[in-house]
Amino acid sequence: MGRKGLSAATAGINVVSNNVANANTVGYSRRNLTTQNSDPIFQQGVLFGQGVDITGIVRAHDRYLGMQLVDAVGLQSRASTAEESLKLTEAYFNESETAGLVEVYGAYYDAFNQLSSDPSDISLRSHAVQTSERLATSVSRVADGLQDNINNFDDGFSAKFSQLNGLLSQIAKLNAAIGKRGDLQGNTELLDRRDQLVREVAALMGASAELDPSGQATIYIDGHAVVSGGEARTLSLITAAGVPPVLYLAADAGLIDVTSGVGGELGGILDARSYTQGYLNRLDDFAFTFANSMNAIHVGGFDNYGAAGGNLFVPPAAIAGAASTLSVDPLVSADPNLLAMAGAAGAAGDDTNLQNILTFESSASFTGALTGLQFLSSIVNDVGGDVAAVSADVEAQDALVEDYDAMRTSISGVDTDEEAVRLIEYQAAYRAAAKIVSATDEMLRVLTTLGG
Asked: Quick count: other Cβ atoms within 10 Å of Cβ 53?
């Protein structure tokens, strides 16, 4: 019994030492020594205890909290990634600068309003052409920037995805090792390592986890198990120019599209891509409607040479890509006298057709029965609103993860003051057990002397 007491106290000191050494280790769960009284023996009609048995070393852990924390980490990572990515897009709609779309669109009509004072004035015509070019350049610059962001999002998605299958495979291997080991101390180390990898996967793709009481972890994406026991299913990525990345899960029947269930960093990238593509589509819609409408008005007038007007802007081939290719007709750019402002041939000072251009400013010709200014303003406002909404979500998710982490720390974290108290207790137990051994040794010595 003295020997068992010494062994239990020694094991307890080892556990405390390990806890203190890992007090600042990320993902470490406090260990506790578990013991039970040994089976008694029956002697001379009395049951005598046989000391203490070490039953194991267990970690302080709440598996239900662990599963909630995995979900929360995925949501937090998705929101923060979407916010960081979307702010790159927001930079192209900064209306605090004079190059903002709304500002430039207003300057376009200001220039044509000035031209109405004297439609034949070459300097005013030149200014009108320059503001037209500036508007086209601003729209195409924003469109190109949005497309660059979309391409970068796709590249970032592929780069992040490259880590995924490796992490899933590591989790499966740890699951298998945990199931095979009978060494509880070893299992606590594997469990902590496995749980840290599960958290990394959640942050990367937003998976949910089911932590079995036996120690196994099952990882799900979009309701499908990607890791079960010691098996990991392969995820594959399909990319093509102009379309969002698609994530497939290998299955017996083939491949399952699980893209809609992706969260974490990958989900945040997809969210930002979707927002950005939406803005680009609306900007294309604006450019297509604006260029065709301006051309339809312009060809109905006459230029300073008395000839019928041509196109003011290069006609877009289709809605898709219209913003990126928006540009003033090269002939008009080269000769402002080709601006067809008159309503009849030979009427250089006439502004009949110019008034048609100015009237279009208040025309609800854009999608949603909006004017051009309203349509552009709606895009800018939506960008700001979307960024604000995502930022608010980040704050909420950060607070939730912080709460869960605090709860985990209270359950699984190492408190050095508590460990100091436990160390004193084990030291005292060791000294007491040592005294038992010493007393027993003295008793045996006395008996041996009596026998002599």
From this structure: 14
Q: Is the pLDDT of residue 97 over 70?
A: no
Closest CA to 181 of 231, 230, 232: 230
Domain limits for position 368: 62-300+357-412
Q: How many CB atoms lie within 10 A of CB 162?
A: 9
The span from the CA of 440 to the CA of 452, in Å, is 18
Q: Which residues contact 447 (CB under 8 A, 6 or more apart)?
A: none
- What is the reported pLDDT for 207? 87
- Quick: pLDDT tens for 294-309: 999 999 999 999 999 9
**How does pLDDT run across 161-199, given as a tens digit for each residue?**
999 999 999 999 999 988 776 555 568 889 999 999 999
Q: Which two tokens stand for residue 164?
A: 């995924």
Does 290 have pLDDT greater than 80? yes
- Which amino acid belongs to residue 293? S
Is 254 contained in some domain? yes
Integer Cα distance of 53 and 148 in angstroms: 66
β-strand partners of 256: 249
Own/partner pairs, 127-133, CB within 8 angstroms, 24+ separation: 128/336, 128/339, 129/328, 129/332, 129/333, 129/336, 129/339, 131/104, 131/107, 132/108, 132/312, 132/313, 132/328, 132/332, 133/327, 133/328, 133/333
pTM of the model: 0.88
Do 190 and 260 lie in a common domain? yes
